Amino acid sequence: MKLCNKCILPENYSGLIMDDNGTCNLCKQNTKIDYWGQDALKKDISEIIKKNKNKEYDCIVSFSGGRDSSYLLWYAIEKLKLKPLAVFIDSGLIPKQTIDNVKKISEKLGVQLVIKKHDFLLKSIDHSLKSWVKYPEAATLTNLCNGCRYGIGKLINDEAIKRKINLVLAGGTPFEKGFFKKNLISNNQNSHISFFVGYAKLVLKNPLLILSYHNLKMQVLEYFTMKSGYVNSQDKKNLTILSPFYKYVKWDERLVNDTIENALNWKSNPELNSTYRGDCVVGIIRQFLYNLMLGYNDKDDHLSWLIRDGQISREDALQRVENEKKVGIDTLKYTFSEIGIDYDSYVEEFKKNIKKHKIKLLGDDKFTAQCLFLDC
Ligand SMILES: [Zn+2]
Questions:
Q1: Whole-angstrom Cα distance, residue 375 to residue 357?
Q2: How far is the CA of 250 from the centre of ligand 1 (A)?
Q3: Taking phi first (over 0 means left), then psi (-120 to 50 degrees means alpha), and beta for anything else, what does residue 110 get?
Q4: Which of 119, 147, 213, 228 is most buried, judging by how many CB atoms fall within 10 Å of its CB?
Q5: Cα(7) to centroid of ligand 1, in Å?
Q6: Mean pLDDT, the chain, as a whole number?
Q7: pTM above the 0.90 mark?
Protein backbone atom coordinates (compact mmCIF):
# COMPACT_ATOMS: atom_id res chain seq x y z
CA MET A 1 0.00 0.00 0.00
CA LYS A 2 1.32 3.42 -0.97
CA LEU A 3 1.74 5.84 1.94
CA CYS A 4 1.56 9.64 1.94
CA ASN A 5 5.09 11.03 1.54
CA LYS A 6 4.66 13.42 4.48
CA CYS A 7 2.71 11.35 7.03
CA ILE A 8 2.19 7.58 7.23
CA LEU A 9 -1.44 7.32 6.13
CA PRO A 10 -2.00 4.76 3.38
CA GLU A 11 -3.82 5.63 0.16
CA ASN A 12 -6.82 3.54 1.20
CA TYR A 13 -7.34 5.67 4.36
CA SER A 14 -11.02 6.48 4.15
CA GLY A 15 -11.68 9.97 2.74
CA LEU A 16 -8.01 10.64 1.94
CA ILE A 17 -7.07 12.38 -1.31
CA MET A 18 -3.49 12.03 -2.56
CA ASP A 19 -2.11 14.60 -5.00
CA ASP A 20 0.18 13.78 -7.93
CA ASN A 21 3.27 14.20 -5.74
CA GLY A 22 1.97 11.63 -3.23
CA THR A 23 1.00 14.07 -0.47
CA CYS A 24 -2.35 13.63 1.28
CA ASN A 25 -4.98 16.34 1.74
CA LEU A 26 -4.66 16.22 5.54
CA CYS A 27 -0.96 17.12 5.31
CA LYS A 28 -1.62 19.78 2.69
CA GLN A 29 -4.44 21.45 4.60
CA ASN A 30 -2.70 21.23 7.97
CA THR A 31 -2.08 24.54 9.69
CA LYS A 32 -0.16 25.09 12.89
CA ILE A 33 -2.41 25.34 15.93
CA ASP A 34 -2.30 28.75 17.54
CA TYR A 35 -2.72 27.86 21.23
CA TRP A 36 -4.44 30.38 23.47
CA GLY A 37 -2.01 29.61 26.30
CA GLN A 38 -2.10 28.60 29.94
CA ASP A 39 -2.96 32.10 31.18
CA ALA A 40 -6.04 32.21 28.98
CA LEU A 41 -6.99 28.78 30.28
CA LYS A 42 -6.63 29.89 33.90
CA LYS A 43 -8.65 33.02 33.21
CA ASP A 44 -11.49 31.15 31.50
CA ILE A 45 -11.57 28.51 34.23
CA SER A 46 -11.67 31.11 36.99
CA GLU A 47 -14.63 32.79 35.25
CA ILE A 48 -16.48 29.47 35.12
CA ILE A 49 -15.77 28.32 38.67
CA LYS A 50 -16.75 31.68 40.15
CA LYS A 51 -20.31 30.47 39.67
CA ASN A 52 -19.53 27.04 41.11
CA LYS A 53 -21.88 26.10 43.94
CA ASN A 54 -19.65 23.31 45.25
CA LYS A 55 -17.21 24.69 47.80
CA GLU A 56 -15.10 21.54 48.14
CA TYR A 57 -14.11 20.97 44.50
CA ASP A 58 -13.38 23.33 41.61
CA CYS A 59 -14.05 20.80 38.90
CA ILE A 60 -14.40 17.17 37.91
CA VAL A 61 -11.61 15.51 35.96
CA SER A 62 -12.97 12.77 33.74
CA PHE A 63 -10.33 10.20 34.66
CA SER A 64 -10.01 7.01 32.58
CA GLY A 65 -6.63 5.92 33.91
CA GLY A 66 -5.24 6.25 30.37
CA ARG A 67 -2.32 8.41 29.36
CA ASP A 68 -4.05 11.71 28.62
CA SER A 69 -6.45 11.89 31.53
CA SER A 70 -3.68 10.88 33.97
CA TYR A 71 -1.61 13.78 32.67
CA LEU A 72 -4.65 16.05 32.82
CA LEU A 73 -5.27 15.24 36.48
CA TRP A 74 -1.64 16.02 37.29
CA TYR A 75 -1.83 19.19 35.19
CA ALA A 76 -5.03 20.40 36.91
CA ILE A 77 -3.36 20.14 40.31
CA GLU A 78 0.25 21.08 39.60
CA LYS A 79 -0.16 23.71 36.89
CA LEU A 80 -3.69 25.05 37.25
CA LYS A 81 -3.69 24.77 41.07
CA LEU A 82 -7.23 23.43 41.04
CA LYS A 83 -8.95 21.18 43.57
CA PRO A 84 -10.44 18.52 41.29
CA LEU A 85 -12.62 15.54 42.02
CA ALA A 86 -11.43 12.58 39.93
CA VAL A 87 -14.33 10.57 38.48
CA PHE A 88 -13.58 7.19 36.96
CA ILE A 89 -16.30 5.47 34.95
CA ASP A 90 -16.08 1.68 35.15
CA SER A 91 -17.71 -0.05 32.17
CA GLY A 92 -16.94 -3.47 33.63
CA LEU A 93 -14.40 -4.18 30.86
CA ILE A 94 -11.36 -2.26 32.08
CA PRO A 95 -7.88 -3.88 32.11
CA LYS A 96 -6.44 -4.50 35.56
CA GLN A 97 -3.46 -2.20 34.91
CA THR A 98 -5.82 0.71 34.22
CA ILE A 99 -7.69 0.23 37.50
CA ASP A 100 -4.31 0.08 39.29
CA ASN A 101 -3.28 3.36 37.62
CA VAL A 102 -6.53 5.03 38.63
CA LYS A 103 -6.20 4.09 42.29
CA LYS A 104 -2.46 4.68 42.66
CA ILE A 105 -2.40 8.01 40.84
CA SER A 106 -5.35 9.41 42.81
CA GLU A 107 -3.60 8.38 46.01
CA LYS A 108 -0.29 9.83 44.90
CA LEU A 109 -1.88 13.16 43.99
CA GLY A 110 -4.06 13.16 47.10
CA VAL A 111 -7.20 13.48 45.01
CA GLN A 112 -10.62 12.26 46.05
CA LEU A 113 -11.62 9.48 43.64
CA VAL A 114 -15.18 8.51 42.81
CA ILE A 115 -15.78 5.29 40.88
CA LYS A 116 -19.09 5.03 39.05
CA LYS A 117 -20.20 1.83 37.35
CA HIS A 118 -22.59 1.33 34.47
CA ASP A 119 -23.65 -1.73 32.51
CA PHE A 120 -24.51 -0.11 29.16
CA LEU A 121 -21.41 -1.60 27.49
CA LEU A 122 -21.70 -5.00 29.21
CA LYS A 123 -25.31 -5.23 28.04
CA SER A 124 -24.35 -4.30 24.43
CA ILE A 125 -21.08 -6.02 23.73
CA ASP A 126 -22.30 -9.59 23.17
CA HIS A 127 -24.82 -8.48 20.55
CA SER A 128 -22.39 -5.91 19.09
CA LEU A 129 -19.68 -8.50 18.44
CA LYS A 130 -22.04 -11.25 17.29
CA SER A 131 -23.96 -8.98 14.93
CA TRP A 132 -20.79 -7.37 13.54
CA VAL A 133 -19.30 -10.71 12.49
CA LYS A 134 -22.36 -11.58 10.35
CA TYR A 135 -21.14 -9.01 7.83
CA PRO A 136 -17.69 -7.95 9.02
CA GLU A 137 -17.05 -4.45 7.73
CA ALA A 138 -14.71 -1.83 9.20
CA ALA A 139 -17.46 0.81 9.06
CA THR A 140 -19.63 -0.94 11.63
CA LEU A 141 -16.81 -1.61 14.13
CA THR A 142 -17.80 1.65 15.80
CA ASN A 143 -20.76 -0.25 17.27
CA LEU A 144 -18.46 -2.32 19.49
CA CYS A 145 -18.14 0.72 21.72
CA ASN A 146 -21.92 1.12 22.00
CA GLY A 147 -22.82 1.93 25.55
CA CYS A 148 -19.35 3.03 26.62
CA ARG A 149 -19.31 6.55 25.16
CA TYR A 150 -22.86 7.14 26.38
CA GLY A 151 -22.05 5.70 29.82
CA ILE A 152 -19.06 7.99 30.32
CA GLY A 153 -20.92 11.11 29.15
CA LYS A 154 -24.03 10.39 31.19
CA LEU A 155 -22.36 9.38 34.45
CA ILE A 156 -19.90 12.28 34.43
CA ASN A 157 -22.74 14.72 33.73
CA ASP A 158 -24.91 13.18 36.45
CA GLU A 159 -22.09 13.36 39.00
CA ALA A 160 -21.36 17.01 38.17
CA ILE A 161 -25.01 18.00 38.43
CA LYS A 162 -25.54 16.03 41.66
CA ARG A 163 -22.55 17.71 43.29
CA LYS A 164 -23.33 21.13 41.77
CA ILE A 165 -19.92 21.27 40.09
CA ASN A 166 -20.12 23.35 36.90
CA LEU A 167 -16.85 22.41 35.22
CA VAL A 168 -15.65 19.11 33.80
CA LEU A 169 -12.13 18.78 32.42
CA ALA A 170 -11.62 16.16 29.72
CA GLY A 171 -8.37 14.86 28.22
CA GLY A 172 -9.08 15.13 24.48
CA THR A 173 -6.32 16.24 22.12
CA PRO A 174 -6.24 17.49 18.49
CA PHE A 175 -4.08 14.50 17.57
CA GLU A 176 -6.76 11.83 17.71
CA LYS A 177 -9.30 12.94 15.16
CA GLY A 178 -9.71 9.54 13.51
CA PHE A 179 -11.62 10.98 10.53
CA PHE A 180 -11.59 7.60 8.82
CA LYS A 181 -14.21 6.17 11.18
CA LYS A 182 -16.87 8.69 10.17
CA ASN A 183 -15.72 8.64 6.54
CA LEU A 184 -16.32 4.90 6.39
CA ILE A 185 -20.00 5.63 7.09
CA SER A 186 -20.41 8.89 5.19
CA ASN A 187 -17.99 11.01 3.21
CA ASN A 188 -19.71 14.22 4.25
CA GLN A 189 -18.49 14.93 7.79
CA ASN A 190 -20.96 17.76 8.37
CA SER A 191 -24.21 16.34 7.10
CA HIS A 192 -26.40 14.43 9.52
CA ILE A 193 -28.60 13.24 6.66
CA SER A 194 -25.61 11.86 4.78
CA PHE A 195 -24.43 10.07 7.94
CA PHE A 196 -27.89 8.62 8.53
CA VAL A 197 -28.19 7.43 4.90
CA GLY A 198 -24.69 5.89 5.09
CA TYR A 199 -25.56 4.06 8.28
CA ALA A 200 -28.93 2.92 6.91
CA LYS A 201 -27.13 1.32 3.94
CA LEU A 202 -24.90 -0.64 6.33
CA VAL A 203 -27.95 -1.75 8.31
CA LEU A 204 -29.65 -2.96 5.13
CA LYS A 205 -26.66 -5.21 4.51
CA ASN A 206 -26.63 -6.37 8.14
CA PRO A 207 -30.02 -5.77 9.84
CA LEU A 208 -28.91 -7.67 12.94
CA LEU A 209 -26.93 -4.54 13.93
CA ILE A 210 -30.13 -2.90 15.14
CA LEU A 211 -32.14 -5.97 16.11
CA SER A 212 -31.60 -5.51 19.81
CA TYR A 213 -33.63 -2.95 21.72
CA HIS A 214 -30.73 -2.05 24.02
CA ASN A 215 -28.15 -1.74 21.21
CA LEU A 216 -30.43 0.35 19.02
CA LYS A 217 -31.18 2.63 21.97
CA MET A 218 -27.44 3.07 22.64
CA GLN A 219 -26.76 3.83 18.97
CA VAL A 220 -29.39 6.59 18.95
CA LEU A 221 -28.33 8.04 22.31
CA GLU A 222 -24.64 8.03 21.36
CA TYR A 223 -25.32 9.70 18.07
CA PHE A 224 -26.90 12.62 19.90
CA THR A 225 -24.22 12.65 22.60
CA MET A 226 -21.46 12.84 19.96
CA LYS A 227 -23.41 15.45 18.01
CA SER A 228 -23.57 17.78 20.99
CA GLY A 229 -19.78 17.40 21.38
CA TYR A 230 -17.60 16.98 24.43
CA VAL A 231 -15.15 19.74 23.62
CA ASN A 232 -15.72 23.18 25.10
CA SER A 233 -19.45 22.62 25.11
CA GLN A 234 -21.89 24.25 27.42
CA ASP A 235 -25.21 22.61 28.09
CA LYS A 236 -28.47 23.92 29.41
CA LYS A 237 -27.68 22.91 32.96
CA ASN A 238 -24.80 25.36 33.08
CA LEU A 239 -22.15 22.66 32.92
CA THR A 240 -19.01 23.39 30.92
CA ILE A 241 -16.96 20.55 29.51
CA LEU A 242 -13.52 21.76 28.61
CA SER A 243 -10.51 20.00 27.07
CA PRO A 244 -7.42 22.10 27.94
CA PHE A 245 -5.20 20.32 25.40
CA TYR A 246 -7.42 21.15 22.48
CA LYS A 247 -7.05 24.87 22.01
CA TYR A 248 -5.32 26.23 25.11
CA VAL A 249 -2.19 24.23 25.87
CA LYS A 250 -0.08 22.14 23.53
CA TRP A 251 -0.17 18.41 24.19
CA ASP A 252 3.41 17.23 23.80
CA GLU A 253 3.74 13.46 23.70
CA ARG A 254 7.27 13.32 25.11
CA LEU A 255 6.41 15.65 27.98
CA VAL A 256 3.18 13.76 28.71
CA ASN A 257 4.90 10.35 28.76
CA ASP A 258 7.80 11.65 30.88
CA THR A 259 5.48 13.30 33.38
CA ILE A 260 3.12 10.39 33.91
CA GLU A 261 5.91 7.83 34.08
CA ASN A 262 8.21 9.81 36.37
CA ALA A 263 5.86 11.87 38.52
CA LEU A 264 2.96 9.44 38.69
CA ASN A 265 4.55 6.04 38.11
CA TRP A 266 1.88 5.43 35.45
CA LYS A 267 2.18 2.03 33.77
CA SER A 268 1.01 1.12 30.29
CA ASN A 269 -1.04 -2.00 29.63
CA PRO A 270 1.54 -4.84 29.76
CA GLU A 271 -0.29 -6.62 26.93
CA LEU A 272 0.48 -3.79 24.51
CA ASN A 273 3.60 -2.08 23.16
CA SER A 274 1.92 1.29 23.20
CA THR A 275 0.92 3.90 25.76
CA TYR A 276 -2.08 4.82 23.60
CA ARG A 277 -5.58 3.31 23.65
CA GLY A 278 -4.93 0.52 26.13
CA ASP A 279 -7.49 1.41 28.77
CA CYS A 280 -10.41 -0.72 27.58
CA VAL A 281 -10.49 -4.36 26.50
CA VAL A 282 -13.10 -3.67 23.81
CA GLY A 283 -10.91 -0.87 22.44
CA ILE A 284 -8.07 -3.36 22.00
CA ILE A 285 -10.25 -5.71 19.93
CA ARG A 286 -11.69 -2.83 17.92
CA GLN A 287 -8.28 -1.40 17.02
CA PHE A 288 -6.99 -4.87 16.14
CA LEU A 289 -9.96 -5.39 13.81
CA TYR A 290 -9.54 -2.01 12.10
CA ASN A 291 -5.97 -2.95 11.37
CA LEU A 292 -6.93 -6.38 10.11
CA MET A 293 -9.68 -5.04 7.84
CA LEU A 294 -7.99 -1.85 6.59
CA GLY A 295 -4.27 -2.12 7.32
CA TYR A 296 -4.41 0.93 9.60
CA ASN A 297 -6.07 2.07 12.79
CA ASP A 298 -6.08 4.95 15.27
CA LYS A 299 -2.35 4.49 15.81
CA ASP A 300 -1.46 5.38 12.19
CA ASP A 301 -3.82 8.32 12.47
CA HIS A 302 -2.38 9.53 15.79
CA LEU A 303 1.26 9.24 14.68
CA SER A 304 0.45 11.07 11.44
CA TRP A 305 -0.96 13.99 13.43
CA LEU A 306 2.21 14.02 15.55
CA ILE A 307 4.30 14.22 12.35
CA ARG A 308 2.17 17.12 11.05
CA ASP A 309 2.63 18.85 14.40
CA GLY A 310 6.41 18.45 14.15
CA GLN A 311 6.63 16.28 17.30
CA ILE A 312 8.11 13.24 15.57
CA SER A 313 9.73 12.51 12.22
CA ARG A 314 8.13 10.35 9.55
CA GLU A 315 10.96 7.83 10.06
CA ASP A 316 10.19 7.64 13.80
CA ALA A 317 6.53 7.06 13.05
CA LEU A 318 7.28 4.33 10.52
CA GLN A 319 9.49 2.62 13.04
CA ARG A 320 7.01 2.91 15.86
CA VAL A 321 3.77 2.07 14.13
CA GLU A 322 4.38 -1.61 13.43
CA ASN A 323 5.56 -2.34 16.93
CA GLU A 324 2.89 -0.28 18.64
CA LYS A 325 0.05 -1.90 16.71
CA LYS A 326 1.02 -5.43 17.68
CA VAL A 327 -1.54 -7.41 19.63
CA GLY A 328 -0.60 -10.90 20.74
CA ILE A 329 -2.90 -13.87 20.29
CA ASP A 330 -3.04 -14.38 24.06
CA THR A 331 -4.29 -10.85 24.58
CA LEU A 332 -7.04 -11.40 22.02
CA LYS A 333 -8.06 -14.72 23.53
CA TYR A 334 -8.11 -13.19 26.98
CA THR A 335 -10.19 -10.20 25.92
CA PHE A 336 -12.74 -12.44 24.20
CA SER A 337 -12.93 -14.62 27.30
CA GLU A 338 -13.46 -11.51 29.46
CA ILE A 339 -16.44 -10.69 27.26
CA GLY A 340 -17.68 -14.27 27.38
CA ILE A 341 -17.37 -15.17 23.69
CA ASP A 342 -15.54 -18.25 22.47
CA TYR A 343 -12.58 -16.94 20.47
CA ASP A 344 -12.08 -19.96 18.20
CA SER A 345 -15.71 -20.17 17.06
CA TYR A 346 -15.73 -16.40 16.55
CA VAL A 347 -12.69 -16.58 14.28
CA GLU A 348 -14.30 -19.44 12.33
CA GLU A 349 -17.45 -17.41 11.78
CA PHE A 350 -15.40 -14.36 10.79
CA LYS A 351 -13.53 -16.35 8.15
CA LYS A 352 -16.74 -17.91 6.82
CA ASN A 353 -18.48 -14.52 6.46
CA ILE A 354 -15.46 -12.81 4.92
CA LYS A 355 -15.60 -15.43 2.16
CA LYS A 356 -19.37 -15.31 1.85
CA HIS A 357 -19.47 -11.52 1.39
CA LYS A 358 -16.22 -11.41 -0.62
CA ILE A 359 -14.63 -8.90 1.76
CA LYS A 360 -10.97 -8.17 1.13
CA LEU A 361 -8.73 -7.87 4.18
CA LEU A 362 -6.06 -5.22 3.80
CA GLY A 363 -4.26 -5.87 7.08
CA ASP A 364 -0.61 -6.69 7.03
CA ASP A 365 -0.18 -10.39 7.73
CA LYS A 366 3.10 -10.14 9.58
CA PHE A 367 1.51 -9.61 12.98
CA THR A 368 1.30 -12.87 14.85
CA ALA A 369 -2.27 -12.46 15.90
CA GLN A 370 -3.40 -11.57 12.42
CA CYS A 371 -1.65 -14.59 11.01
CA LEU A 372 -3.53 -16.84 13.36
CA PHE A 373 -6.73 -15.01 12.58
CA LEU A 374 -6.16 -15.57 8.89
CA ASP A 375 -4.42 -18.96 8.91
CA CYS A 376 -1.52 -17.53 6.94
ZN1 LIG B 1 -0.17 12.91 4.75
A1: 18
A2: 21
A3: left
A4: 147
A5: 4
A6: 90
A7: yes
